[in-house]
Amino acid sequence: MDEISGSSYRVHEPDPFLIQFTETFGIRYYGLAYILGFVVGLWLLNQYYKKGRSPYNPDQQSDFFIALIIGVVAGGRLGYVLFYAPEILITAPWKVFFVWEGGMASHGGFIGVAAATYYTARKNSQSFWLTADIACSLAPAGLLFGRIANYLNGELWGKVSYVSWAVRFTTAPDGGVQPRHPSQLYEAGLEGLLMLLYSQFRIWKSPVLKTHPGSLVGEFLLLYSVVRIFGEQFREPDAALTFGLSRGSLLSVLMGAVGLAILIAARKRAASDNAVQ
To answer: For residue 89, what pLDDT is reported?
Structure first.
């Protein structure tokens, strides 16, 4: 704890390792976050099949999840390089593959998930939109754990703030002189927990998967864009502003527009199907 302006603030000195074996090798929080996210997602996928929400049997679930893992990691890393650090392509292009050094973008991860969803649906002769609805509901657990790992790693800190729960991050540019919003935890609650609760509510308490395939993924993208833009107001921008918006907010605006278009199209398809019947 430390005293600034008469208030006491927690000083966060990050340690990327849960268990460290050598100077550079150990069980990292970030890697653990991915593992926990995948475990929860695989468990949910299995529950969907058992309860009649998903057509993917246990054998197909394994292939589905392997595709999702590849999509998340490859899309997240490529998204980070393209959206936030394009200079890597010029100065050290081989580092595009250095995922262990950190640097993943959630928006890129979503693109990777979309590609994995298309591959899975086509391979198993299933509806792309139903598969997309299922896939998007598996993502929030990983976002929740990932944002907590961001906090533990002391990265993606928030803007300077003097609220009573502010934190001094020793990894911030000022070395932790100024207290900041623990924006990583805000995002964990919004992008992770809130989105998880919403998607699970829609799957278990409504017939959306059967009556409006594609609707849930549209709702997910639209709601995610809203909470991400809200969370960005407390986060120190990690890229230059464009049109007065952070890079994350700008990408979220585009994602929200895509989500709205998907949602409208899903509703029109459902109305058309009902009219035919």
So the answer is: 81
